């Protein structure tokens, strides 16, 4: 996969979010969907199947462009705060562990299908600047968490250190999204939570990136 292809791949979650926002505006304007009814339906799904689906999608996020933020919010909507938080944290850590294993044990050609050389080089610069705390910070930034997980495996960072610092960033992020999702009453609120979270984390990413580039 070329670097340019990798960049386009990483834009997929943003395209998906834009499509959801546009669809929401159209359906709202035409009054085609009962948005409160959708939330009621989500909360009526069998918790076991909801948990299995959300967990599976969170874990495969390392290989597929699955938007993890909406999944974590929906975990709170469908399962409530305690169970939703536990599922979101375990699923997110599972994704991080899978990315680490991919980077450490997979053949180079397969690693390059997920993370480009340019991205690995940039992740090393971030790691030198922030140390292991970088793993926790990256957990809340869309698409960056997967890149960091793979690069940590490639660099043969201690798995225990990687998971410990990843956990420190995972818990507060998941808690905020799951709590917001558990309080949401309409699809509008869920979409706005996801959009606000995406804008905040992307803004954080660009601020940190400028800081890293300015560092000696």
From TrEMBL:
Q: Which UniProt keywords apply?
A: Cell membrane, Membrane, Transmembrane, Transmembrane helix
Membrane topology type = Multi-pass membrane protein
Pfam family example for this protein?
A: VTT_dom
List where in the cell it is found.
Cell membrane
InterPro entries from the entry?
A: TMEM64, VTT_dom
Where's the VTT domain? 66-183
Keyword tRNA-binding appears in the UniProt entry: no
Transmembrane domains' residue ranges: 7-27, 47-64, 71-93, 130-150, 162-184, 190-208
Family in the record = Belongs to the TVP38/TMEM64 family.
| Name under which the protein is recorded | TVP38/TMEM64 family membrane protein
> What organism does the record attribute this protein to?
Lentzea atacamensis
What is the organism lineage in this UniProt record?
Answer: Bacteria, Bacillati, Actinomycetota, Actinomycetes, Pseudonocardiales
């Amino acid at each position: 996969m070329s670097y340019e292809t990798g960049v386009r791949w990483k834009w997929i979650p943003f395209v998906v979010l834009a499509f959801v926002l546009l669809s929401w505006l159209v359906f709202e304007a035409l009054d085609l969907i009962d948005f409160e009814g959708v939330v009621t339906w989500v909360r009526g799904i069998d918790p076991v199947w909801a948990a299995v689906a959300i967990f599976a999608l969170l874990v495969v996020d390392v290989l597929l462009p699955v938007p993890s933020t909406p999944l974590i919010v929906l975990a709170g909507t469908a399962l409530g705060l305690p169970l939703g938080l536990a599922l979101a944290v375990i699923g997110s850590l599972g994704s991080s562990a899978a990315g680490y294993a991919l980077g450490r044990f997979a053949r180079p050609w397969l690693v390059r299908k997920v993370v480009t050389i340019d991205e690995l080089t940039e992740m090393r610069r971030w790691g030198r600047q922030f140390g292991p705390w970088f793993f926790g910070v990256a957990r809340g930034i869309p698409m960056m968490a997967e890149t960091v997980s793979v690069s940590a495996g490639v660099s043969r960072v201690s798995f225990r250190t990687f998971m410990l610092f990843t956990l420190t960033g995972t818990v507060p992020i998941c808690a905020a999204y799951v709590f917001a999702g558990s309080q949401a009453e309409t699809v509008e609120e869920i979409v706005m939570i996801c959009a606000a979270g995406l804008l905040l984390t992307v803004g954080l990413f660009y601020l940190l990136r400028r800081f890293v580039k300015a560092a000696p």
